[in-house]
Each structure stands twice: as C-alpha cells, then as structure tokens.
C-alpha cells in the first residue's frame, strides 16, 4: 500500500514538472488540464466541506468580475450571445489559480517539482533559440523570420512566452537548498538574470526585453537591500556582467538596430507606430460604443472589422485581433466598470504578494512574485489577448505560482 501511495505521489510530481511545458506548447492540453483541475478542486472542497479559500480577496473579486462580464456586459453589447459565452468561460481561470494555490502547490516537494520543470524547460528554450540565432535554424529545423527568432515555437514568441516564467526559474535558483554559500547564490542569480537578458535581446522582442530589464533591476536592488554583507560583491559582479554583456550586445548590430535603436524611435514616434495604429482605434471604438459596460469579452475582433470603423485605417492597420494592451482590452471589452473591477482585483493580488512575505525571513519571495506579475501586467507593455486561451493559460499559471508562493501557510 505504501509503495502504491509513493508511486502515485511520484506520478503527481512528474505531471507537475511537465505542466509548464504543456502550458507553453499545447493550447488544447492546457485548457483540458485547467478545466479538469478546477472541477476536481471543487469536488474535493465539496467532499471535505472546505470553502474557506473562497473568501480570499482576489478570488472574490474575480468571481464578481466573472458575474459582471457574463450577465451585465452582454445587456448592452452588440453581439450579446458571444459576450455572454465569453464572459462565462472566464470563471475557469481564477478557479484554476485557486486550485493551484490552495490544493496543488502546497508542499515543498510540489514547488520543487514545478519549479524544476520551469528551469529545465527554460534551459531547453534558451539553448534551442540561441542555436537558431547562430546557425540559422533550431533543433527542429525552424528558421528565424527576418531578424527575429522563433525558437522551438516556430512563432515570434520565444521571448514573450519565456518571460512569463523566467523569474520563477531565478527564484528557484536563489532559494535552492543546494546553494549554501551566499556569494555563490549571488553569482548564480546575477548570471541567470544576464543570461535571460541576452536571450531575450537576441529574440528581437522589444517589449519582452524591456520587461526583463525592469524585473532584473528590481531584483538587483532588492538583493542590495537584503544582503547587506554582500553589497560590494553584488555591485562588482553585476558591473562585470554588465560590461561583458554590453560588449557582446554591441557586436550584434542587426539586433542592436531591432531591440535598442528601433525601441528609441518607437517611443519618440509612438503616435506613428504600429502600436498606436492599434490602440488609438481601440480607444475610439470604446468611446463610440457602450463605454460604461463595454462591447463584450472576445467581441473586439467582430466589432473592429465593421465598415463603420474604416476611418481609423485599413483592417491591416487596425489589426483587429485584439487591442494589444491588457488594460485597453479590459476598458474596451468590459467598459469603465469592468476596467475598475480589474484594477481592484490586481490590488488584492499585489497585496497578497507582500502581506506576509515582507515580514518573513524569505521576504524576497514577494519580490520575485511581483516581478513575475510585472511580466504580464506592466501597464505600458504591449501584450497578446488576455482572454485568448494560449496566452491566458500561461498568465494564470505564473500568477498561480506567485500567489501560492507568498501564502502565509507556506512562508
């Protein structure tokens, strides 16, 4: 019997380690996993009459949001049925996060399995993408598109997708029980951050690079504050890595043009950028429709494609798939009310990151969780559709880790 239980636990840990790979590479399997875990979690809670978790602030807000976008928004939406179904399907994301936070990621063994899975997956993605950069094709024969890399995804997303989990891997390194020397810990973390920066720099993804740079600065500053005895060593090692990375970066002129120079022109000429051609029409569509309650979740593409919005440019310029910014998307599709509810939800999430972790000996857990959060919710960052299954599954997976890692019970 004990052997059966041990075998069952080992299989569970293996599945947990494979979860990041499934979520990044298989939209269908990720969606099936999310629904099954949510259903099993509800059944478990019903069986043991354990509903205390349901009063958690961020979960309560997410249920209020789900009810609002399912039953209020469709009333004023032009495509009310799709707004209703799109809103109702939203419930599975916070339910999945609750299952991960209060059921799955609740022991050190489970955290280790999950984080090890993230770490190994990132090593594979980085190695494969770097091979593609230097040889012209990756391990699967995928080739770059222009100056931008695809990595094993065969799409222009290796930096964007990897960014969502990269600070989980850095946290895994920092809190590793196998690293006992404080200086080795510092060297390992700074090395990981610079490898991550160089990797995303090579992909040519500007937004992902800027977000990685921001998160890295936050972590270095936090280490400087917490590790008082290692401050000089931390600054010296960071400076050495910065100089070496700069030499390498400036030797790659085509990527310098894409990642740095084009970013500069993108910022100063934003009104003429591709991003502006998407966001300005999105705000215009919001203003010309029901600005209070929005056009309905997942309705943007259908509304944007209508002929009456041709004054905002061609379909190609408008890029009607989604508004390309999470906050603009919430404003357009859920209106002012939904946008404000979403902001309140984020406040509850951030509060939980630091509510207990800041007073814990492991206070940096909250910093790592916040950096993971910023990879998606940094306001000025362009983004993929928040409601699209492939990106939403990764967002909620990383958010689940952040919420679980900073729980009082775990700290």
Automatic annotation (TrEMBL):
Residues annotated as domain O-antigen ligase-related: 192-343
Highest rank taxon of the organism: Bacteria
Primary localization: membrane
UniProt topology in membrane: Multi-pass membrane protein
Gene Ontology CC terms: membrane
Keywords assigned: Membrane, Transmembrane, Transmembrane helix
Alphabetized InterPro entries for the sequence: O-antigen_ligase-rel_domated, WaaL-like
Protein location: Membrane
Transmembrane regions listed in the UniProt entry: 12-43, 55-77, 89-105, 112-136, 156-175, 184-202, 208-226, 233-250, 327-350, 362-380, 386-404
Protein name: O-antigen ligase-related domain-containing protein
Organism of this sequence: Methylophaga aminisulfidivorans
